[in-house]
Amino acid sequence: MAQDKAAAILAALGGEDNVVEIEACITRLRCEVEDGSKIDEAALKAAGAHGVMAQGTVVQVVVGPEADTLAEDIEDLR
């Protein structure tokens, strides 16, 4: 199930080609993307994100205490 959630988050961030960097920070996924317009905030929330903050090519996805596991799972998918 965690892999499904990771895959959904990766897709909502615009896919693996759009993600430059992703790292966990306590309860958030901090991401840098190539094209911020490819971010689908509704899909991120549908995947379980509690909140999304995006400015330009920098995105923070609030996912709770599973941030470390999700970041690792997303890296495995890339």
Secondary-structure blueprint:
Elements: H1 2-12, E1 19-25, E2 28-33, H2 41-46, E3 51-55, E4 58-62, H3 67-77
Helix pairs in contact: 1-3
In short:
The chain is an alpha+beta fold and 78 residues long. The protein is built from 3 helices and 4 strands.
Structural features, described:
With 78 residues, the protein is α+β, with helices and mostly antiparallel strands. It has one domain: Glucose permease domain IIB (Gyrase A, domain 2). It contains three helices and four strands. Strands 1-2-4-3 form a four-stranded antiparallel beta sheet. Strand 3 and strand 4 form a beta hairpin. Helix 1 packs across helix 3. The chain is globular and about 25 Å long. It starts with a helix and ends with a helix. The mean pLDDT is 93.
CA(first)-CA(last) distance? 17 Å
The helix-strand sequence is: HEEHEEH
Query: What would you call the structural class?
Result: alpha+beta
CATH architecture name: 2-Layer Sandwich
Q: What would you report as the Rg, rounded to the nearest angstrom? A: 11 Å
Largest sheet: 4 strands, antiparallel
Q: Which band does the percent of strand residues land in?
A: 25-35%
* Helix content class: 25-40%
In total, how many beta strands?
A: 4
What top-tier CATH class fits best?
Alpha Beta
Note the overall shape. Answer: globular
Keyphrases for this structure?
single chain; alpha+beta; Gyrase A, domain 2; four-stranded antiparallel sheet; 36% helix
